[in-house]
């Protein structure tokens, strides 16, 4: 079972997410929090597989809570999926830098929410396709030398599609390969680039202008 913590200051949102998660045969809600301080405390106490984290919460916002739970200096990071109403560029940038294992808009729908939880639990990450292209452009920096990272042409194709927010199934369909082959390519890409999840692959691609 994937154990999920839900952190949001709106009770109705917590209830809605709880119903979606609870309806999945492989998931259970193990705790809730209405602000960032409680979210950090509950995450450390319950050690969930995945935490769903809103950004705008009282006492401590979700981005600060994210950094405390999943930042680069955290020894045993929690897999945090940021779920918010606000698709502001700065929020996404901070979430990715803070170690988020996914970024979804609240109107993304139940299917994408469930997929994001499963992706995070398996060590992957998912960003709402509706915001991936626009927002990751703002991570762009001057392309480092040797921009292909030693990736094969097929791996670069997988990277570009991943950076556009496509799921493994969508990538498989577009490239006419199996989902298992996509996962194999992603494993090789992670090894070559030193990335931990899809978010970091997407950021790497945008920084090198591999996606237009």
TrEMBL record:
GO terms for biological process: phosphorelay signal transduction system; regulation of DNA-templated transcription. InterPro entries: CheY-like_superfamily (IPR011006), NreC/VraR/RcsB-like_REC (IPR058245), Sig_transdc_resp-reg_C-effctor (IPR016032), Sig_transdc_resp-reg_receiver (IPR001789), Tscrpt_reg_LuxR_C (IPR000792), WalR-like (IPR039420). Residues 144-209 form the HTH luxR-type domain. Keywords: DNA-binding, Phosphoprotein, Transcription, Transcription regulation. PROSITE patterns: HTH_LUXR_1 (PS00622), HTH_LUXR_2 (PS50043), RESPONSE_REGULATORY (PS50110). Gene3D superfamilies: 3.40.50.2300. It holds the Pfam family Response_reg. Residues 3-121 form the Response regulatory domain. It comes from the Bacteria. The modification 4-aspartylphosphate is found at residue 54. GO terms for molecular function: DNA binding. SMART domains: HTH_LUXR (SM00421), REC (SM00448). CDD domains: LuxR_C_like, REC_NarL-like. This is LuxR family two component transcriptional regulator. It comes from Actinoplanes xinjiangensis.
């Amino acid at each position: 079972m994937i154990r999920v913590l839900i952190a949001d200051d709106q009770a109705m949102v917590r209830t809605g997410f709880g119903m979606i998660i609870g309806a999945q045969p492989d998931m259970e809600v193990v705790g809730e929090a209405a602000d960032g301080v409680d979210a950090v405390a509950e995450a450390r106490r319950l050690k969930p597989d995945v935490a769903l984290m809103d950004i705008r919460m009282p006492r401590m916002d979700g981005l600060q809570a994210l950094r405390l739970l999943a930042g680069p200096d955290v020894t045993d990071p929690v897999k945090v999926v940021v779920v918010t109403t606000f698709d502001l560029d700065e929020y996404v940038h901070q979430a990715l830098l803070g170690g988020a294992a996914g970024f979804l808009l609240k109107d993304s729908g139940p299917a994408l929410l469930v997929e994001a939880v499963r992706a995070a639990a398996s060590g992957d990450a998912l960003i709402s396709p509706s915001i991936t292209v626009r927002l990751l452009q703002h991570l762009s920096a001057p392309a480092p030398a040797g921009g292909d990272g030693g990736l094969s042409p097929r791996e670069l194709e997988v990277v570009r599609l991943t950076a556009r927010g496509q799921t493994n199934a969508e990538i498989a369909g577009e490239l006419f390969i199996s989902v298992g082959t996509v996962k194999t390519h992603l494993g090789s890409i992670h090894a070559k680039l030193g990335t931990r999840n899809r978010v970091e692959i997407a950021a790497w691609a945008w920084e090198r202008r591999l996606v237009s």
